[in-house]
UniProtKB/TrEMBL annotation:
Domain of life: Bacteria
UniProt source species: Jeotgalibacillus marinus
Keyword Isomerase annotated: no
Transmembrane regions: none
Listed name of the protein: GMP reductase
GO molecular function: GMP reductase activity
Lineage: Bacteria, Bacillati, Bacillota, Bacilli, Bacillales
Length: 329
């Protein structure tokens, strides 16, 4: 791969506006037969989403993916969402018990609308077999498979039956995969997204490395249909991470830890994630509104009134930096 770049290395080039107000610009996106207000989904991590946040997002027209780290709660979560007329979107892993879980969901006729297979190295037979298992028992569910970082992986998972793939190995804010293993798309996530999108025939979810709202538009330009974001959603009052007060200045912080961190796993085995504190930043609703306004503005700069306009804008590469603004460790 040559000419790699990341979010901070790209600027999109404005085109003549066709709207009189940014409020005319439509940020909605379709995925799996539903339309959502934004092409954004909070990361399926335990410090980012819980049942309450998931319900809020579903009720208000946003996409969500529930995490898989409290497996005992998943059935009741789906039943509750169904009882309230809301869609279900859950995550699974690839271990033996997850196969039984899929069968159980099918036996109870719960059929969640979205199932995300969430493992670190998604280009694997383990994921291919799980896609096939889900498609056999729950053919109506929309399957998102990941994470991957190459066109070969996107093609193989699509061929196995995935309805969408999730791209991003190691660009996350609390990720240390790039440092511990030397592998991944950290530092060139946006170029990896473009590379994968060229091979994809189904939607791609760009996962990790989003640091500003402008990065959402950039992801869309380089082929994403949806963008998964952790760190920008970690600091809200509704975020499930612990709230921590700094004793010296009284400033409030929220904890944000990696799904492969010692904090998540409860042991120091194959750790590829860390824990950080992010500044408390008010309500989720405010951030979602601001994201919508910023994206409406992006669409207007792209010279259109729908998200699709962003796909066709020109861009320049302005510099390169391997850590995308993050501290190394
Ligand atoms: N997007 C990213 O860059 C990354 C995300 N994560 C997140 O951390 C969480 C935990 O992920 P994960 O450890 O995969 O989940 P699990 O602990 O559930 O592992 C899933 C399965 O995949 C195996 N496995 C894990 N890593 C690899 C690998 N590199 N090569 C081959 N097999 C592997 C595991 O076996 P065994 O443990 O015995 O190897 C296990 O059988 C997930 O939410 C994931 O999304 C983690 C790292 C990177
Ligand atoms: N390498 C690791 N990646 C992780 C871990 N936990 C989550 N993640 C990935 O990060 C994104 C969120 O990225 P952000 O830049 O928006 O904060 C998340 O969706 C996962 O794909 C981990 O422990 N290690």
């Amino acid at each position: 791969m040559e000419n790699v770049f990341d979010y901070e290395d790209i600027q999109l080039i404005p085109a003549k506006s066709m709207v009189n107000s940014r409020s005319e610009c439509d940020t909605t996106v379709s995925l799996g037969g539903r339309t959502f207000k934004l092409p954004v989904v909070p990361a399926n991590m335990q410090t980012i989403i819980d049942e309450k946040v998931a319900s809020y997002l579903a009720e208000n027209g946003y996409f969500y993916i529930m995490h898989r780290f409290e497996p005992e709660k998943r059935l009741s979560f789906m039943k509750d969402m169904k009882a309230r007329g809301l869609y279900s979107s859950i995550s699974v892993g690839v271990k033996e018990e997850e196969y039984r879980f899929i069968q159980q969901i099918a036996d109870e006729q719960l059929s969640p609308e979205y199932i995300t297979i969430d493992i670190a190295h998604g280009h694997s037979n383990a994921v291919i077999q799980m896609i096939q298992h889900i498609k056999e028992y729950l053919p109506q569910s929309f399957v998102i498979a990941g994470n991957v970082g190459t066109p070969e992986a996107v093609r193989e998972l699509e061929h196995a039956g995935a309805d969408a793939t999730k791209v991003g190995i190691g660009p996350g804010k609390v990720c240390i995969t790039k440092i511990k293993t030397g592998f991944g798309t950290g530092g060139w996530q946006l170029a990896a997204l473009r590379w994968c999108a060229k091979a994809a025939s189904k939607p791609i979810i760009a996962d990790g490395g989003i640091r500003t709202h402008g990065d959402i538009a950039k992801s869309f330009r380089f082929g994403a249909t949806m963008v998964m974001i952790g760190s920008l959603f970690a600091g809200h009052e509704e975020s499930p991470g612990k709230t921590i007060e700094n004793e010296k200045d009284g400033m409030l912080y929220k904890e944000y830890f990696g799904s492969a961190s010692e904090f998540q796993k409860g042991e120091k085995k194959n750790v590829e994630g860390k824990r950080i504190l992010v500044e408390h930043k008010g309500s989720l609703e405010d951030t979602l509104k601001e994201m919508e306004q910023d994206l409406q503005s992006s669409i207007s700069y792209a010279g259109g009134n729908k998200l699709e306009a962003i796909r066709h804008v020109d861009y320049v590469v302005v510099k390169n930096s391997i850590f995308n603004g993050d501290k190394v460790y």
